[in-house]
Specification:
- The radius of gyration is 32 Å and the shape is globular.
- The protein starts with 7 loop residues before the first helix and ends in a 15-residue tail after the last helix.
- It has a 3-stranded antiparallel beta sheet with strand order 11-12-13, with no helix packed on it. A two-stranded antiparallel sheet has the order 1-2. Strands 3-4 form a two-stranded antiparallel ribbon.
- About 5% of the residues have low confidence.
- 55% of the residues lie in helices and 7% in strands.
- By secondary structure, it is mostly helical.
- Helix 12 packs parallel to helix 14 and helix 19 packs across helix 23.
- Strand 3 and strand 4 form a beta hairpin.
- Among the domains are: 134 residues, no CATH class; 64 residues, no CATH class; 41 residues, no CATH class.
- It is found in: Endoplasmic reticulum membrane.
């Protein structure tokens, strides 16, 4: 950062001010503050930034005399000292603020005792001022004034955990402030390298930990007690994404800020919350498991490099991923929510799959005691499809070569697929006797596995299906019956979520139809997965894109000379119309061009409208359906527009 250019007169003013400040510091050091100087400095406005040279002296005085200042003989004197120091802090350059923060944190934020509550007490109207600034932050749709951000920055410095938690609770209720929250977080980067102490409840850890870990843990704890809507939990997910992202600060040199949190630290917090006995509300488990799944995904470039525990006897130490315990907890949680929340079970099973993938990459193997314990206590009583998936993911780590299959699938495998070498049969022949056909049972079992791992189900299907006369049945009708009619109560999937089987269903139909006489029809898959309960029904789904700001701007009053440009004349003659003149962003963030601006476009999907199939609909029937669709679409827009920043008076126009 370059020095601020000041005139000789301004230097004289600053020099006199700094001399007064140093004299006042010394009076506080003697526990006899100079009331006259204090009144002059506090009450008189000083609208200048302190020159770097003088600022260096000031910040050292602020750090050196801080303890004396906050321990004055009267609370009023201590409060006046905090007002004095805060004013000096606001007058420092950003570089000098960071230097002061580094000194302050080393001295005051590394104790085992949290002094934040004391700092809040000696800061006059601390909570009132903080609440006021948070209110301004939430009310401002555009860029927030720097003075507001600096006030919050100062509050974080004095009371890091409590201020952060309050700010993130606000962000959960008003996600439009998340960019400003990130900006404030970058201003106090010195806090994140320390393990700080804060008060915890009985369900939380009782040891010093990185600040944002403590904050995120507290955010979840407070959210469970105070959040009223599912949107607030969805915004917690947005906050977690923002905390783990790099931030681009120099577009020419591609310089970035590192993520605010390490993914391994956040994963530790998330796993602790998943393993806690608190299961309410269910939406909290949904979001926490989603964050866990996203962090562990192999495709995630920020996914942590885990050091796996290979024995159930391994003790918890920093940086060690307690694999056996975590596998056990995730399986138990999946069992608890199976049939209750497909989102949660999917997140948990995908997390297990990612852990297995990472262990396979590192060729990690459990010791004999551990893999026997997992096989006997966790998988022995598990459904076949969960056991099969777990052995697919963790087979090498568990020392298992053969995976077990129910009779209906085992007998249907092609003998050319090394069936006996890779698989073992589970005898379940009694289920076939109560079913309409072996094919129906086969596909039901396959869909059971697909609920846990679609890729494993597809791989199993492509081992070769030797069911007799499979080409002679209406496969689409068979799959529909399995998914929608006979087994709708057995498969714990909501009808609106059946699209998750889409890839597998398409794969089955393509494979079978390719070998048979009929041609494959994509529309059959669409009808099958659309949610219809009958071949005589279709669905129409209203959807609205809600966004408050134009993604590209038209020039309302372009210069008249523009219309005389040769390029404009040529385009108008060729196309028979005058092209609109618009502006957007360039390839670099702060340039002008024709690319759309980076604006959020939120698409809201409404409930499906069920329609009876009519071969030759009348105009009255079409008009009736159109009117219902317009009515549902308008209501959808009105219900959601204010959530995404669209003005209350804005109306949707449908022509």
């Amino acid at each position: 950062m370059s020095e601020i250019e000041v005139s000789p007169e301004e230097l004289d003013i600053q020099k006199a001010f700094v001399q007064k400040a140093e004299k006042l510091f010394k009076s506080f050091r003697k526990y006899n503050p100079n009331k006259v100087l204090l009144e002059q400095i506090i009450s008189k406005p000083h609208n200048f930034t302190i020159f770097e040279f003088y600022g260096s002296n000031i910040l050292h005085d602020m750090a050196d005399y801080f303890q004396a200042g906050i321990t004055q003989q009267s609370e009023t004197d201590s409060q006046n000292f905090m007002i004095f120091v805060k004013k000096l802090y606001m007058m420092l350059t950003d570089r000098q603020k960071h230097k002061f923060q580094a000194k302050f944190i080393v001295v005051w934020q590394k104790f085992k005792v949290d002094y934040s509550s004391f700092f809040e007490k000696v800061s006059k109207d601390f909570h009132k001022i903080l609440t006021h600034n948070f209110d301004i932050l939430m009310e401002t749709e555009e860029e927030v004034q720097d003075s507001v951000l600096q006030e919050i920055r100062w509050a974080i410095l004095l009371s890091p955990a409590a201020t952060f938690v309050k700010m993130l609770l606000r962000a959960a209720r008003a996600p439009h402030i998340i960019p400003s929250v990130l900006k404030i977080c970058r201003m106090v980067s010195e806090l994140y390298g320390q393990k700080l102490k804060m008060w915890h409840s009985q369900f939380e850890v009782d040891t010093p930990e990185p600040l944002l870990c403590a904050v995120f843990r507290r955010l979840i704890f407070e959210g469970r007690a105070s959040f009223k809507t599912t949107e607030e939990w969805e915004n917690v997910d947005l906050i977690s994404i923002a905390f783990l992202e790099h931030e681009l600060i120099d577009h020419e040199n591609c310089t970035t800020f590192p993520p605010l949190m390490k993914s391994a630290d956040l994963l530790d917090v998330i796993l602790c919350q998943l393993c806690s006995p608190n299961r309410t509300p269910t939406k909290s488990i949904d979001i926490i498991s989603r964050i866990c799944n996203r962090i562990l995904e192999p495709e995630n470039l920020e996914s942590p490099d885990l050091r796996f525990a290979t024995s159930i006897r391994d003790q918890p130490v920093d940086g060690l991923f307690l694999t056996p315990t975590i596998i056990h907890k995730l399986l138990k949680l999946g069992e608890e929510f199976y049939g209750k929340s497909q989102n949660i079970t999917e997140n948990l099973y995908h997390s297990l799959k990612s852990i297995g993938f990472k262990m396979r990459e590192k060729e990690v193997v459990f010791d004999e005691e551990t893999y026997e314990l997992i096989l006997e206590s966790d998988l022995q009583q598990a459904p076949w499809w969960l056991e099969y998936a777990m052995l697919t993911w963790f087979g090498p780590a568990l020392g298992v070569r053969k995976r077990r299959l129910p009779t209906e699938i085992f007998q249907a495998l092609s003998e050319d697929s090394d069936r006996d070498e890779e698989f073992e049969e589970i005898h379940t022949e009694e289920e076939i006797e109560n079913s309409n056909s072996p094919a129906e049972v086969y596909f039901f079992k396959l869909f059971q596995l697909a609920l846990v791992d679609v890729s494993a189900a597809a791989e199993l299907f492509h081992r070769g299906c030797t069911l007799p006369r499979l080409h002679d049945v209406d496969l689409t009708e068979l799959l529909e019956r399995v998914m929608w009619e006979e087994d709708v109560k057995k498969l714990p999937v909501n009808p609106d979520e059946r699209h998750k089987f889409g890839c597998l269903v398409a794969d089955i139909l393509r494979t079978v139809e390719h070998k048979g006489p009929r041609k494959f029809n994509d529309a059959l898959i669409d009808a099958l997965l659309s949610g219809s309960n009958s071949a005589e029904e279709e669905t129409v789904v209203p959807a609205s894109a809600v966004f408050p700001i134009e993604t590209i701007k038209a020039l309302e009053q372009p210069l008249p000379i523009v219309y005389k440009w040769p390029e404009h004349e040529y385009a108008r003659n060729m196309m028979g119309m005058s092209l609109p003149l618009v502006k957007g962003r360039g390839f670099l963030q702060y340039t002008v061009g024709w690319l759309p601006f980076r604006r959020p476009i939120n698409t809201v999907i409404g409930a499906p409208i069920r329609v009876k199939r009519v071969e030759n609909p009348s105009k009255e029937q079409i008009d009736k359906l159109h009117a219902e669709y317009v009515q549902k679409l308008t209501k959808l827009f009105e219900d959601h527009k204010q959530k995404y920043g669209v003005a209350k008076e804005t109306q949707i126009l449908i022509k």
